[in-house]
Amino acid sequence: MKGNEKLIAVLNDLLADELTAISQYMVHSEMSENWGYPKLHKAIEKQAIDEMHHAEWLIQRILFLEGMPVVSKLNPIKIGKSVLEIVTNDQQAEVGAIHAYNSAIKVSREAADQSTADLLTQILKMEEGHVDWAEVQSSQIEQMGLENYLANQSEGAAA
Ligand SMILES: [Fe+2]
Ligand SMILES: [Fe+2]
After folding, report:
1. Which ligand ends up closest to the CA of 104?
2. 51 Cα: distance to centroid of ligand 1 (angstroms)
């Protein structure tokens, strides 16, 4: 089904955001593993996998709308140098994603494409879950101190 050109361009922008997030989170997840924080590693890895699903769904939708998915474009990737920077950078990325999905939902509605709006809303809810996770980490670091937070993240590191 031929889709709205402007909407297809917006979906490709979201796809670039998702592909960027996958790369950033994969590196952050593996840095956490490398530092011996398996809980942090698992949590960030799960987010990277969520972003991969988002990229997949966007690609499916762009193809359905007879557009060409662009997978060669990445935005600047912001790798943190510490756990605090990782959490902060990922939180900023998720806040950006929430803005981007909200404005893309508006474009979908303007193009009278409710089904795309529904898909984007489904993804938006997951991004809200991601920002919530990052906010919890920031609050815990602030309240219990970085050292206590990190001690919790290294639990079960015997393997
Ligand atoms: Fe995403
Ligand atoms: Fe996300």
Report:
1. 1
2. 4
Q: Are 14 and 100 in contact (CB under 8 A)?
A: yes
Tell me, what's the pLDDT at 156?
60
What percent of the chain has a predicted confidence (pLDDT) above 70? 97
Q: Please list the alpha-helical segments (H only) found in 35-113.
A: 38-64, 83-110
**CA nearest to 132, candidates 120, 122, 140, 121:** 140
**Which residues have their alpha-adjacent CB atom under 5 A from ion ligand 2?**
127, 130
Name the residues around ion ligand 1, CB cutoff 5 A. 18, 51, 54
pTM for the model stands at: 0.94
Euclidean distance between CA atoms 82 and 149, whole angstroms = 13
Q: How far is the CA of 154 from the centre of ligand 2 (A)?
A: 23
Q: How far is the CA of 137 from the centre of ligand 1 (A)?
A: 19
The predicted pLDDT at position 37 comes to: 96
Measured from the Cβ of residue 84, the count of other Cβ atoms closer than 10 Å reads 15
What is the helix (H) or strand (E) element at residue 151, kind and residue range?
Answer: helix 146-153
Output the six-digit token pair for 84. 């605090």
**Both tokens assigned to 61:** 């939708």
- Which amino acid is located at 70 in the chain? V
58, 69 in Cβ contact below 8 A?
yes
